[in-house]
Amino acid sequence: MANTSDIRKGLCIRHNNDIYKIVEFLHVKPGKGPAFVRTKLKSITTGKVIDNTFSAGHKIDDVRVETRSYQFLYSDGQTYHFMNTDDYNQIALQESALDTPELLKEGEVVTIMFNTEDSMPLSVDMPASVVLEVTEAEPGVKGNTATNATKVAVVETGARINVPLFINEGDKIKVDTSNGSYMERAKDS
Prior knowledge:
Distance between the termini: 47 Å
GO cellular component, one term: cytosol
Largest sheet: 6 strands, antiparallel
Order of helices and strands: EEEEEEEEEEEEEEEE
CATH class of the largest domain: Mainly Beta
Shape: flat
GO molecular function, one term: translation elongation factor activity
Protein name: Elongation factor P
Subcellular location: Cytoplasm
Strand content: over 45%
CATH topology of the largest domain: SH3 type barrels
Family: Belongs to the elongation factor P family.
Helix content: under 10%
Oligomer: single chain
Number of helices: 0
CATH architecture of the largest domain: Roll
């Protein structure tokens, strides 16, 4: 058993007869009244995100997890197939287990969390950022750079991302996987 001071992003807890992963949290200490923790919880089974507030010191039932590295192989519709990088065993997960499946490209290495009690996969953690190639982008209009103007570009995985006007087809860009936003043009290595 843990309490609210142990809450952190990515922690898996049992709540209302389901297992939830903490997506966001905020410790609040108002001037009057007791402190509390405002959280955003994502259901591992359904993928639904709920808001919940825990009072300070509230006991929470944390789930012991184990993480392993897996490489993304391919997807066929709603099912995503991964291979363990250590023993080459393969598993298939539903799309709801992934936070940003549209940013996942073949060969990408992700971290999968497993419940230590029954070895069931709980969630897939993407790397902090991914490098993707732009496959479609409208050309930037000259003189339209007075403000922080953006345009929509389609990357190799099919995701649509707002990018600055100077990004063209064939450029590689770095994308933040937490919110799917453009970070920077990828450096050639």
